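P.,

For your records, the input lines for the assembly:
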Amino acid sequence: MRTDDTTPGRRRLLAGWGRANPTAATVRDVEPDELAAAVKDLPARGGIARGLGRSYGDPAQNAGGHVLRLAPANDHVAIDDDAGTVTAGGGVGIDDLLAILVPRGWFVPVTPGTRFVTIGGAIASDIHGKNHHREGSFGNHVTRLRLMLADGTVVDLAPEPAPGNDHELFWATVGGMGLTGVIVDATFRLIPIETSRMSVETHRLGHLDDVMDRMVESDADFRYSVAWIDLLARGKHLGRGVLTNGEHAVPDQLSPTAASDPLAYDGRQLVAVPPVVPPTGVINRLSVTAFNEVWYRRARTGRHVGVESIPAYFHPLDLVGGWNRVYGRSGFLQYQFVVPFGAEAVLRTVIERISAARLPIFLTVLKRFGAGNRGPLSFPMGGWTLAIDVATDRSGLAPLLRSLDDLVLGAGGRHYLTKDFHMTPADVRRGYPRLDEWRAVRDRVDPGGAWASDLSRRLELTD
Ligand SMILES: Cc1cc2nc3c(=O)[nH]c(=O)nc-3n(C[C@H](O)[C@H](O)[C@H](O)COP(=O)(O)OP(=O)(O)OC[C@H]3O[C@@H](n4cnc5c(N)ncnc54)[C@H](O)[C@@H]3O)c2cc1C
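Structure tokens returned:
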């Protein structure tokens, strides 16, 4: 069934959100009813699904092969208000979904730091949000998904073992980086909301210990929790940061004007927060030091409670279009890892090493994950996760990251595949001890290796 690459589609250079390491593939935009034909046309280099390209690394690239972009098909959204679930096509974006759901009093179960991800991308990466400590990752909320296999057939999958249900394939697809097939559509549970606003409690904290202690104390009391850390701070200020805890606001918390239409939602609105990239657009130590100081001081000392819009609280980076270009031509990477609870000393050492390296890093996110799920390649596990954005052309970056890798993997931690640029196959084996279990399922449903990506070849996830 495999052919040489003579099928229709445009040959294009593609990169991830980090803009590093672009490669050329034949890109095919496919409507749902064209998908089976596109799958049958895959060349020897195979194919991979691509959503909105918001993964930082190379999981949605396939050098020399095909990349299948599923049409947004927003008419493929069906809300079940009684069950509190929605069924949406794999190419539907969370951005479009929120515009439909929020005015009806529903919110997605998990959102990442950008609205511009698809449902297929959310499940394939098993994304986490600021509520992981309470509610787990996206896959925890999926009750059913339909997957197109390499032979063009579609299977219906659910998470629980049941006669006729391939639950192993369900969990191999959650976090499976598109390597088990194309997610055609999925049904998942929603969060009921009374308003489209967030009640946000902000704490400015002077040292890493304060940040971590406060997170431990407050996580159980809040649905959403995240801390920004100033990685240029040193000495007694090492790891100073701003913790924001959030809840969906109730009508009583709204101003009289806002309360007149409590579920009003405008994803396009440019809310009045300072842009969350250094305003000069130049990423160097001076500009980032200045930015970090402003960002830190912007949070009032002690505890502060306010009301924010959904975009301002969850998706502030979306307010700055194309912000990924400020890192220059060679692009940037996001280094994200998790270490289990009990490895707090390792987290501290990592932060000390990054701080000592004086890298201009403004985007840092520290969170506490709750328990992981059954997906063998799902990233989250109970512990602390840190994510940092850094330009790829910084001298000394590679040896620094290697030294951090050793610490993370030595502590029983792992790195997030969807953000990865630099891991080795051995690192993945160490971080994901259930890799062989995942491979067995994948080999069963794709014995010919139809699904392939730059990530899968680089990390030897598949043969
Ligand atoms: C600003 C920003 C903030 C972010 N914050 C977070 C965060 O807080 N938490 C988090 O977990 N992630 C975060 N991410 C990462 C992002 O959520 C994931 O990379 C997500 O998978 C991107 O979705 P996408 O639709 O753009 O998929 P793509 O990047 O296009 O693809 C990602 C993976 O999904 C697969 N895929 C896409 N569609 C399908 C489909 N229909 N069927 C099968 N496989 C498919 C691809 O093959 C690929 O392996 C962030 C990214 C950015 C840019």
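Two observations worth noting. The CA atoms of residues 207 and 236 lie 7 Å apart. The first helix runs from residue 35 to 40.

Regards
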